[in-house]
Write a structure and sequence with these properties.
Elements (H helix, E strand, L loop, with lengths): L6 H21 L4 E17 L2 E19 L2 E7 L4 H15 L33 H16 L4 E20 L4 E19 L2 E11 L8 H13 L10 E7 L1 H14 L2 H5 L19 E4 L22 E5 L2 E2 L6 H7 L13 E4 L2 E2 L1 H8 L2 E8 L9 E12 L2 E14 H6 L1 E5 L8 E2 L3 E9 L2
Parallel strand pairs: 7-13, 11-17, 12-16
Antiparallel strand pairs: 1-2, 1-4, 2-3, 4-5, 5-6, 7-18, 8-9, 8-11, 9-10, 13-14, 14-15, 15-18, 16-18
Amino acid sequence: MAQAFDANAQQSVLASRAQEALALAKHLGADAAEVGASVDQGVGVSVRLGEVETVELSRDQGIAVTVYVGQHKGSASSTDAGSDSIRATVEKAMSIARYTGEDPAAGLADAELMARDVPDLDVHHPWALSTEEATELALSCERAGREVSGITHSDGASLSTGEGVRVYANSHGFLGTQKGSRHSLSCMLIAEDDNGMQRDYDYTSVRHPKELRDPAGVGREAARRTLRRLGAKRPATGSFPVLFDPSMASGLVGHLMSAIAGGALYRQASFLCDRLGTPLFPEWFSLEERPMEMGAMASSPFDGEGVQTRNNRFIEQGKLASYMLSSYSARRLGMQTTGNAGGARNLRLSAPLSSFETLLKDMGRGIWVTELMGQGVNGVTGDYSRGAAGFWVENGEVQFPIEEFTIAGNLEQMFANLRAVGSDTDTRGSIHTGSWLIDNMTVAGS
């Protein structure tokens, strides 16, 4: 069992350390400074074929200091938050600042943008779980999956539970703290027939342990997903509609967000540079972030610079309505921060939703993709090419599993060709979306 983790005490200690670092930076001549500090503790157990493989008790902490001397910037970090380490870290950051070039965009976010509304967003639900209890949950998950007829082997099951505290402070006088927790359980199984082996998995991930799915249910779903892949063939080569499973569709949202991130934009490394206000998706599609959503996986009242977070509508009735900007990237672009230092938080779609069965019928003949492989996405051009596996669909019905093929297109064209979104929303991550049906993608198969 890991040592007790007193989140409130850790919060107080980290806040004190952050203020100590800020005071020292000012004393050493910094015009401004910011400090991020965190501590996390967790338990992880993995089992395989009914035996315990690993038990990991982890405790990680760190402190990062950034100083500004005029418009010269220096940053340093340490995994030790003791006073001696803090002094060494601040001194190192000051030393680095003396050798960096001037950057007109460098500096803290504007003081008037600092978060003032910092509510408890219900994201901290620790789990007093012993390693023995964690092991039994993982074993029961794998056991339920292995008991399903046709499962021949296992890549194991894993359970992890953890909580942590993060603090951000800067020389504007802002100090924000947040506690959080995350718990997950996963299982990966293997089945075999005359055509070879197939594997697949299932998992559950939540803030509150009471919301974890039943371990046996996770194991059985992993088995079901594995068995349905047996007998896979290569599909025909051609142009077909593609139905992206929700976990794959969330990746498409991720590619969109990477393309509208300030860092890619000011470096001219995005296919969506200078595209604000232009249509990207059908008019019925909108996308926003909701960082203050209670209990959600990425909720936070302030971003990585202390700026108050807010609901941002990135896609409004199909048009690109906003970029995703930190203070630095906003200055480089001559714009205003959107409170997105550290990324977007809790992305949610607004669109008419169709059942999965309706999506299959609308598709008629095409491919349902349940797995993607490789990194074939060019953020500069939007070109998209990924290895894939899934199922062949004919007459609106799933016919047989398919593998060893590639799907290709261009992200801008794919977004424009979005025909429908499913009601089968995957809520396990920070991006909530159902399946996406996209017309006219190039498939390279047999």
